[in-house]
Amino acid sequence: MTDVTKARVRSKPVVASSDESVRTVRPADEQPGMENFTKAAGLALGWWPVALSADLGDKPVAVRLCDVNLALYRDDSGTARAVLDRCPHRRMPLSLGRITDDGLIQCGYHGWSFNGTGSCERIPNFRPGERPSGRITVDAFAVAERAGMILIHSGGDPTADVPDALSSRTGMHVSGSVEVRAPHASIAAALAFNPGAALGMGLLFGSGDEVVGPDVETEPHRIVVVRDRLTVNVPRLTTFDPAVKRSTRARIETLRETGLTSVTAEIPQGGTVHAIVGATPIGAYRTVVRWQLYVTGKAAPAVAAAAAATWKVRLRTRRAAGTFASVADHADTTYDPVLQTLRGMT
Amino acid sequence: MSIDDVTGIDPAISPAAGRARSNKITAGFTPGRFALRDTWFPVLHSTLLGRRPVRRTIHGEPIYLVREDGVAVAYEDSPQGREHGRLRASEFTAGSGRWPSHETHGYVWVWYGNNDTASVDLLPHLPVLPSAGMPRYFGGNVVFDCSYELICENLLDLTHFDFLHSALTGDPLSEQDEVTVSSTSETVTQVRRASNRAVPKGQKWFVRGKSQDLVASTIMHVRSGVCVLNVDFDPGVDVYMVHPCTPESPYRTRTNYTFNPQHCSRPARYLFPTAAHLIGSQDNYATKPQNKLYQTERSAVPDMNSRFDAAGLRYRKVYQELIDRQAKGDFSYHDDGHPGRDVRNELDLDRTRRGGRTSASA
Fold first, then answer.
1. Which residue, A131, A162, A193, sits at the end of a domain?
2. Does A94 touch chain B (CB under 8 A)?
3. Which of B317, B338, B325, B266 is nearest to B149 (CA)?
């Protein structure tokens, strides 16, 4: 027998030994999480949507951005937090743990608990007043929550401006998400090209052929296009005129770095519909689409309820992802000034 | 050396280990990459081998067990395969297609390694079981979705018992709690002595009183993953247990456990084995996702440790030393780590329990 080691372990209950700020996000240069994204090929600098606000309840949630797995949760003040989904102790995903009463994320394996900045605050079995080593940390990420979306800044900069497209919205809102087997760039192109068809919301934003040419405005970080499309995409009989000639005009704003898209249209009965759609790359050929729909006007309750019900049916019948993928495929082989810009060809 | 001195990444609290060794243990721990050999694996409960053949696996190698004239025999090919002339002849059977095997303590053991060195003397000493084995009811199979190294480390892991299984084994609060870790070139032994712990929720129905002492002795045979335990809740059940961690693949470990509960009422004795899948599923909840991260991460980020991880780190150290030796072609056993040595004292089987009773052995 060699190297006998002996020790006495703690004998009294663990008490949270510090309440030092867990509410602030570290400054950009201290954000350890950003190095994870610099490794991820092709992820541009910016705020990337990773979840809907409605997804965050009283348990941690596992999400993915590129090839980085994250655990999202709300601390005791209700602030959304994001840490690497990997306990630094024995690599169990932190998203399988729980949130403690004092707002720490606690690993489900050994109970190591971390605050929103990634520092380990508590290890079970420690003596009262004993604090874990300051070296024990998990990577924490810069998080923002706007317009019903949880966003992560890929550069780790919590002070970076959040896009105007995500400014506060009013009206009734519904939301949804779906995972699509298509690359992020194709999904971003589909949203800029025909968001009504991609989302299955042609009645709100138009989904058929364009009746007039798109009105495009290109800026360094965004593209704004106004499209007037046939409301319903009914197949035409050979060369006859479309059977339904009604069209819908929508303003589509796409952020060039992240593909975050904002679509606005009028409701004929009065009011507006506004969709904010985020596309999150979670692999080379997989993208999660999350949308938030805000509706104003007299018809808002009916429109919101119809949008939610339609989406649910489309998910249940497995058409939601397929439609997105087919619009993305179509956008890949179509000439359009906006798509050319997104492809970097103009 | 105090257990306070054994932690992972901080050289200030890991002075003896040195950064290179520490990094190899904490960052270079890669379960599922190396098959340690020249050891006996308890692949099957004897009671499960009847007229039909049973297939088992060690490190991905197929084993077909059959009973021929009452004797358990292990082949590389299935009976149907042999009828059709499909004969494997790997180095593990020295080209014969038949694994060295032996039946004792209620298990069929198969030798994984060089046939010339296969010896029943190298079977682990199992004083916690009768040599004829236990009745079938006291055994079972828990299949974990991870590499066996993680289950071995899990068994030597104190704090997860107090956290993940606290309802059955108790929380971390004790009047006194002492842990001893020791090792040989082949085994890691951990003994925990805790006194006046609250009786856990899952034991209250058969334990009188509000507090109990705990002596938990664990011997891990690192090559084979065979773990021998004596977990004595006093008052309460004293669980003798054999907990094999048989590596079937980098993603699957078979634990064909055998319980031998002592000092408890007949109902408790018969109910105790039902806890296996309760605890097993809790462990699998952690080790299954853990396995994926250990095996797929491209960068070797060191694991961080607290002083309670001493036994797990010792396991990694012995495991790594065995790998280093076997990678150089040295498959021998050193004298200190002979698996067949008497481990009654290590397991503290003859200790005196509350009320002066002796912890009787099987």
1. A162
2. no
3. B317
Range of the domain at B87: 39-131
Question: Are the CB atoms for A251 and A226 separated by under 8 Å?
Answer: yes
A284 shares a domain with A245: yes
Q: Report how far residue B109's alpha carbon sits from residue B113's, in angstroms, rounded to the nearest whole number.
A: 13
List, edge to edge, every strand of the sheet that includes A68-74.
Answer: A61-65, A68-74, A80-84, A140-141
pLDDT, tens digit (0-9, with 9 covering 90-100), for B176-208: 778 889 999 999 999 988 888 888 877 777 777
> Is the model's pLDDT at B40 over the cut of 50?
yes
Optimal mutation site among A39, A84, A85, A91, interface B, most CBs of chain B within 10 A: A91
Tell me, yes or no, whether B86 and B176 share the same domain: no
Residues A141 and A211 in one domain: no
Structural domain contains residue A323: yes
Regarding whether B222 and B180 lie in a shared domain, the answer is yes
Of residues A10, A90, A109, nearest to B172 (C-beta)? A10
Q: Based on the fold, state whether residues A56 and A151 are members of the same structural domain.
A: yes
- The per-residue pLDDT for range A245-269, each reduced to its tens digit, is 899 999 999 999 899 999 999 998 8
Q: Does residue A177 share a domain with residue A152?
A: no
Residue type (1 letter), A249: R
Q: Give the domain range for residue A170.
A: 165-342
Kind and range of the H or E element at A60?
none
| Structure tokens belonging to residue B63 | 């084993």
One DSSP character per residue, A170-211 reads -SEEEEEEEEESS-HHHHHHHHHH-HHHHHT-HHHH--S-EE
Same domain, A90 and A182: no
pTM for the model stands at 0.85
Contact B177 A126 (CB under 8 A): no
Q: Are residues B178 and B119 in the same domain?
A: no
The DSSP secondary structure of A76-94, one letter per residue, reads: TTS-EEEEESS-TTT---G
Give A50→chain B minimum CA distance, Å. Answer: 21
Contact B159 A92 (CB under 8 A): no
The verdict on residue B266 lying in a domain is: yes
Q: Bridge-partner residues for B352, per DSSP? A: B358
Asked, for residue A53, whether it belongs to a domain, the answer is yes
As for how many domains chain A has, the answer is 2
User: What's the CA gap between A167 and A273, in Å, rounded?
Assistant: 15
Q: Dump pLDDT digits (tens) for A44-86.
A: 888 999 999 999 999 999 999 988 999 999 999 999 999 999 9
Does B27 reside within a domain?
Answer: no
Q: Enumerate residues 6+ apart whose C-beta is below 8 A from A247.
A: A206, A208, A211, A228, A229, A230, A231
Q: How far is the alpha carbon of B161 from chain A, nearest alpha carbon, in Å?
A: 8
Judge: B306–A96 Cβ closer than 8 Å, yes or no: no
* B310 contacts A4? CB cut-off 8 A: no
Helix axes A320-332, A300-316, angle to 10 degrees: 90
Name the residue of chain A whose CA is nearest to B17's CA.
Answer: A3
Q: Which of A162-166, A306-310, B155-159, B291-295 has the highest mean pLDDT?
A: A306-310
* Rounded distance between C-alpha atoms, residue A83 and residue B289, angstroms: 17
CATH number of the domain within which A218 lies:
3.30.530.20
Taking an 8 Å cut-off on Cβ atoms, the answer to whether A2 and B336 are in contact is yes
C-alpha triplet A75, B297, B313: angle, nearest 5°: 85
Q: How far is B165 from chain A (nearest CA, A)?
A: 10
How much of chain B is in helix, strand and coil states, percent to nearest 5? Answer: 35, 30, 40
> What total of structural domains would you count in chain B?
2
Q: How far is A282 from chain B (nearest CA, A)?
A: 16
Neighbours of A343 (CB within 10 A): 12
